[in-house]
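Lab meeting, item 3. Inverse folding demo.
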């Protein structure tokens, strides 16, 4: 498998091929919440629409979701993997700049492409995420950026989630 899989020891079904890890993982949570983004999906889920609560144009109006053609859809809208890739790439690029600054370096031509792949596993679907980083030639900056970026930390350590019926 091309990524490190961490799981809760007794609360998660282990997909085929995923290594068994002993113990529970540490979930990192903020010491203080500074901002909360809100988006609401309606309609058919992956074929419905999403509205972002406090966004500016063009995201301040509902935007159409569609299954990608590769998954049997018509591809005439955006999908969650594209939205995730956009958020992660922007956040990680910011973390790269912060890491470079700490190292006393500049990376003015840096860019980050995030490829988020989805496919079936035993129970539902699973994601694979790859980052392609250009304009950085120091691995220590890349490594430090993963320690800074909340998306990287959420993927490595997990994220606290809560589901509330309203």
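The presenter then showed the designed sequence:
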């Amino acid at each position: 498998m091309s990524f490190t899989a961490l799981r809760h020891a007794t609360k998660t079904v282990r997909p085929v091929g995923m290594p068994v890890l002993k113990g529970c993982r540490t979930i990192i949570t903020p010491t203080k919440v500074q901002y909360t983004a809100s988006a609401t999906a309606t309609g058919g889920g992956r074929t419905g629409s999403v509205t972002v609560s406090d966004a500016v144009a063009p995201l301040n109006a509902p935007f159409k979701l569609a299954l990608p053609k590769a998954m049997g859809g018509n591809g005439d809208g955006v999908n969650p993997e594209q939205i995730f890739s956009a958020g992660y790439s922007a956040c990680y690029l910011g973390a790269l700049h912060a890491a470079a600054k700490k190292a006393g370096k500049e990376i003015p031509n840096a860019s980050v492409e995030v490829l988020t792949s989805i496919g079936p596993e035993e129970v539902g679907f699973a994601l694979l995420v790859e980052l392609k980083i250009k304009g950085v030639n120091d691995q220590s900056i890349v490594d430090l950026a993963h320690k800074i970026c909340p998306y990287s930390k959420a993927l490595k350590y997990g994220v606290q989630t809560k589901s509330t019926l309203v």
